[in-house]
Amino acid sequence: SLSIDCGDPTGTRTDELGINWIGDGNYINTGQTAKVQVTNTYYQEEKTLRYFPFQKKSCYLIPGAARGMKHMIRASFFYGNYDNKSSPPSFHLQFDGNYWTSVTTSLDTSLYWEVIYVPKRDNISVCVAQTLPDQIPFISVLEVKEFEPGMYETKGTEDVLVLWKRKAFGSKDFV
User: Fold this and answer.
1) How many whole angstroms separate alpha carbon 125 and alpha carbon 81?
2) Which residues form the Malectin-like domain (predicted)?
3) What CATH number is attached to the domain comprising 64?
4) For residue 171, is it within any domain?
5) In this structure, is residue 173 part of a structural domain?
6) N or C: the chain end with fewer CB closer than 10 Å?
7) Global pTM exceeds 0.85
8) Closest of 20, 50, 45 to residue 34, by C-alpha
């Protein structure tokens, strides 16, 4: 399990849930770091981000992926008006060279996307790609989790599961 605080190159900390967060300096060597201006986020790791004003495509490279095992990648984005432009950007998100989704960020809401798949190599790449000249891609959080055999079982190793919606059934506290 790997939890990366993007935009904090060297930091490490353990949050109240016992998750160990590390900085992103060992996983990317491009882009610039910033702190958000809107501070309504609850999560410490969303208070920094890494943005990419000079590259069309920028990638995190995560080594040590176990071949044949399903992995979940969660990419989170909290614009938080880091550039004082009040103009949340849109851009593409990719994993291992494959188109994942088109990301449209929000001024003050954290958004995330998840994918579950079996990597073909012993590393995982997660990229943000610029789609329009005035739209600067960024990323706040990157999480990679390896699943135990049998979790999210599908018929083949080529299958990819993408989060559509998460719902808590049977809980009185969540809608």
Assistant:
1) 27
2) 4-172
3) 2.60.120
4) no
5) no
6) C
7) yes
8) 50
